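Q: How would the structure tokens look for this protein?
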Amino acid sequence: MRARTPLLSLDNVDVKIGGTTVLSGLDWELVEGRHWGIVGPNGSGKSSLLGLVAGTLWPAPGAGTRRYTFDGHTHRDAVEARRRTAFVGPELQDRYEKWGWNFSALDVVLSGIFRQDVPRKQAMPGERIRARAVMREFGLGALAGRPFLELSRGEQRRVLIARSMAFRPSILLLDEPAGGLDRRSRAVLDELIARAAQHTTVVATAHAATDLPSVASRVLHLDDGCIVKRVTNRSATVTGSGPPARTQAEPGGSKRSDGARADRARSCGPLIEILDADVWLGHRRVLNDVRWRLERSEHWLVRGANGAGKSTFLKLLYGQLRPALGGAVRWPGLGDPRNVWDLRRQVGFISAELQAAYRFPSTVRDCIASGFASSVGLIRPLTADEEKTTVRSLERFSLSDFAARPLSTLSYGQLRRTLLARMLVNEPRVLLLDEPFEGLDELSREIVRTELGAFVAAGAQLVCASHHSDIRTRFTHELVIEEGRVVKTRSLP
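A: Here is the predicted structure in token form.
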């Protein structure tokens, strides 16, 4: 059998961004029909390698060669590669949240046919027929009329992959496709990627090989911008990894006393209380008749499938969403703050959507410091105490070396750590965490576990929506949401 010509060949390639070498000495070939996984920690160069494949990043001058071959024609430039390559990653998904692109799922897939970010022209009947056919092929027909921003994270990701397949790409690049998804959603996504792999060559990234799509039979291991290992003929098909063992939080790291915390709980009653709350997004009721209380010393783990309503539940607690007429959410144990800014000083929130929204041109240091005013961007000079707190936060989250770096140069996991540090500078009484470990490698997870554990040991309370129990604390209660309804609450042993 004659060997197939690689779609892409890299020969001793370096890549520099802003004068910093992010990839070094890469030798690699991508052959049509051979699907690859790329694994490595945050900052190892995974996303940069995808950019190099996609043609959005270039080899450093005089540092190796990159060649593409499509339909028997070899190219040194990336013009044809840009047309032949489709990309789906957290940044693309978050862009819809940031700009409020709430098109129907069908229109999102149509934008792939148009080769546009969003649909900018009236579709012809044949184009709409083709878009519906793509959605049916990938098992998404029932979502066609649903607004994109009202879909779960897993549903959005599947729609974006269908959108990319409407491009009819030769190469499909997937950055952390399984991140933040439960086992069932991962299995559904894995099946969709397997269908896509029948039409294109897939390259997917993950922190661990167990999080790669099952079609990735070859795995490239990156560390510090270099290829350190190649594994071929991976036989195991794993769509998710189990939660690590839970351990108790180590005290320390926060200098607040229980007395100082008690001073902030200015009145009696539960810290947060939800009364008969319905929440609507557009014409769809996302939460239905929710009743719930957060009492002192409680830590709640919120469970449910992707799309069940967990994120909406946390936004309700944060004051970002309000219940429909007849329902209420109150914060009596926090003094019933008079405005959202007073509430933000006592309740911290982290989610993928917040990460999408915080795209202000800022350095890591200024982003963390913006947490004091709960602003997007630093809007005032810091006091001496705030400056010291910012420096300590940089140290605790291992971000001191990145303090002057623009946020745009960070990996997804590094940005997540920065936003977690920003959330904690106000020493909030309640921490609302929506899949806080999504996009983090094991080293970053350990840093975050330690810092969250320190805040819990000092008296902060958690309400965490997560598929994995990565937080080093003993949750006292569990809440389960199914299709917008609280179906179970229980005390945990």
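The chain has two domains: 6-231, 258-491.

The radius of gyration is 23 Å.

Upvote if useful.
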